[in-house]
Amino acid sequence: MFENVVEDADAVSIPPEGIDPDALARSLPAPMVFVDLETTGGNALEDRITEIGVVEVGPHGIEQWSTLLDPAEPIPPFIQKLTGITNEMVRGQPSFGTLAQGLAERLHGKLFVAHNARFDYGFLKNEFRRAGIGFQADVLCTVRLSRLLFPAAARHGLDALIARFGLAPQGRHRALADADLLWQFWQKLHTLYTPDLIGQAVQRVTKRSSQPPQLPDEAIDALPDSPGVYLFYGEGDTLLYVGKSVDVRARVRSHFSSDHQVAKDLRISQEIRRVEVRRTVGELGALLLESQLVKQLQPVHNRMLRRSASLYSWQLTQESDTPQLVSATTVDFSGAESLYGTFSSRNGAESALRALADEHRLCCAQLGLEKIAKGRPCFGYQVKRCDGVCVGDAPLADHTARTREALATLQLETWPYDGPIAIEEHGDDNVEYHVIDRWQYLGSVASRDALDALVDHMPAATGFDPDIYRLLGRRLAASRKAELAVPLTVLLLTRPAFRLSPVEPPEASPKKPRSVALLRRRQPRPEDPDQLRLPFDVR
């Protein structure tokens, strides 16, 4: 299979001082392949590989392998100048397809190590896909490893590693020479850190490849690396999960590039069949859209952001000494004063208030959490966790003031505007307007004209959304106080006046004659005189 491969037996790596390369290779717990490619360009979907270099290390020792490839397309002049690989050099060399099966076997089961590994791994995956071979590997990027181990260093490119660690290049921008530099870097790390520490660092930055087999190889590679919301669908187009990210591709890949420490990711990996993406201009739009879609579509594996059947809050007005639990069905949470916290159940609300009572030595009886006879001590007083307002040992006014102070961290801000607003968010070259009213997200549009149309047909705000409040409450408050580095751009909107439209009266339908049968009275049978007798008639 490898008849046309160029075995570079003369290339001898120069080991860092004090390291036995062969002993290090044989001590590795699992084999590794240090890989570098030269290509006709930077697009893994359109450009092609011109050279592959591999340094394979493991219990068998060290083996170097490289080959030129015919890319079946011209090499741009500036790349010829950079790499020294010309069109004449690759003419007549094997194509990737003729070597694909053997290369896949060489790489199989080994940790794939490359500098800026996404580039090399992406090119190989696409070439293997064109050859009809599915290729996956655990991937270690030496750029990420260098950043983790040397955070104070300003640069982590290959030239920077050569200068910093005194690596000995046999050439630059040739595949095997650059792959060997990575092997030298690996050896150098073992002169600076213990194997255990290096192993921990590798574990942290290695991308564990476990892309679901049901997804086409290109499904994730084709996703955008920009902000948006992604939707996972399973069998029968069942919606499994909705998520968001400023880099959709990287976030989706992370679901399938871990060791499945999260059980949810494992279930999704087994059930997923396709991925859908809805782009947004920026992070705020993605957060708002995710919240909206989870509530509307109720994905199987989303637990957060779902719409609660019930919503409660504690209300402690100025006239009261005891907080009252109120429901969003009876109180407008966006406009009511003196509300504290949002809770999806009565039990959750009472547990939160009880925790505050324990922390601030408040009386559970006075808070309405315990039912006791008047003048009797609460349980907290008996165990020295209440100051005794329940038995008159402490002034009620002081207890009420401390209650307000304890609740202050949970206080809800009322909607600070007279009507709906649009928050303007800018991307690289576009803009979105997110419309919010009374802490409810009503939609986003991409232009002022579309915003006018949305306002004309704006749906009514039907209820306080605690997720939108948590997302925007502090941001809007900080923006109004000019506390944000980049204040939010807020446009005040006005709902259209209520209009009555003329309605034509319905046409009068002809009256149907009443059925004669309905008017006919049943005649009593002569032999049944009791039929006409009422219950209270005297016989």
From TrEMBL:
Record's protein name: Excinuclease cho
Purpose of the protein: DNA polymerase III is a complex, multichain enzyme responsible for most of the replicative synthesis in bacteria. The epsilon subunit contain the editing function and is a proofreading 3'-5' exonuclease.
Segments forming domain GIY-YIG: 225-303
Superkingdom in the source lineage: Bacteria
First-tier enzyme category under EC: transferase
Keyword match Translocase: no
GO cellular component: excinuclease repair complex
Segments of this protein annotated with the region Disordered: 502-539
UniProt keywords, alphabetically: DNA damage, DNA excision, DNA repair, Excision nuclease, Hydrolase, SOS response
Biased composition (Basic residues): 511-523
Biased composition (Basic and acidic residues): 524-539
Residues annotated as signal peptide: none
GO molecular function: DNA binding; DNA-directed DNA polymerase activity; exonuclease activity
Listed EC numbers: 2.7.7.7
Any single GO BP term: SOS response
Catalytic activity: DNA(n) + a 2'-deoxyribonucleoside 5'-triphosphate = DNA(n+1) + diphosphate
InterPro entries: DnaQ, GIY-YIG_endonuc, GIY-YIG_endonuc_sf, GIY-YIG_UvrC_Cho, Ribonucl_H, RNaseH-like_sf, RNaseH_sf, UvrABC_protein_C
